[in-house]
Amino acid sequence: MSRPGPKIPPLSVTDAQRAVLEGWLRRRTTAQALAQRSRIVLECAEGHSIMEVSRRLRIAPDTVRTWRRRFIERGLDGLCDDLRPGVPRKITDADVERVIVKTLEETPKNATHWSTRSMATATGMSQSTISRIWRAFALAPHRSQTFKLSTDPLFIDKVRDVVGLYLDPPEKALVLCVDEKSQIQALDRSQPVLPMVPGVPERRSHDYVRAGTTTLFAALEVATGKVIGSLHRRHRSSRSSSRSWTRKSRLICRFI
Fold it and tell me: What is the pTM of this model?
């Protein structure tokens, strides 16, 4: 006479749990493994046996038995994967702080900024570790930017006037932004540029010939984005202000 197997504890699902399980099934972004576990629990909650659920879902009976038991013991949390132990951290929070403080408050000897190699040598860490720490805290010692602070007490009011004119110009008004760029070096290559041929890119000599400097006057029509400009070979310091406005006025007349 065969002995009866162990009694299987009943599985019941509350309305709140059923709503969560059905939501996991409907959601497209749910992982396939979690969706399958949700189906197992819902099928078992309908009163189906382990073998019936195994046949209906085409999975092994042990898989049904495992997730059925975990749901009974731990509820919805039992359907999620357990955290797997990994390699313990070798870099502590104190090490990370030391790298950040050193990057922000110190500079290396005989250099203007830190590199991953010099920081790794100074801290005893690897270059890849230094790179990961810098990326995590958005640090880039090799990069720099410029800035300009205005000392004009009416600077904010002037900016508002100019920006307001650009954004909301008067009706039927022509709004232009005019400026000049002086001391532009006029350079030319010492030899003619060799054109591109199959298998060989365009080539040009590495040295150049200086042809003095030039000044660029440009005007931007704000409404259409049209830009016109003119180049002037000389921009002498004497009477430069009056000459500059004269050339700008001529440039503006080309729009009218």
Answer: 0.43
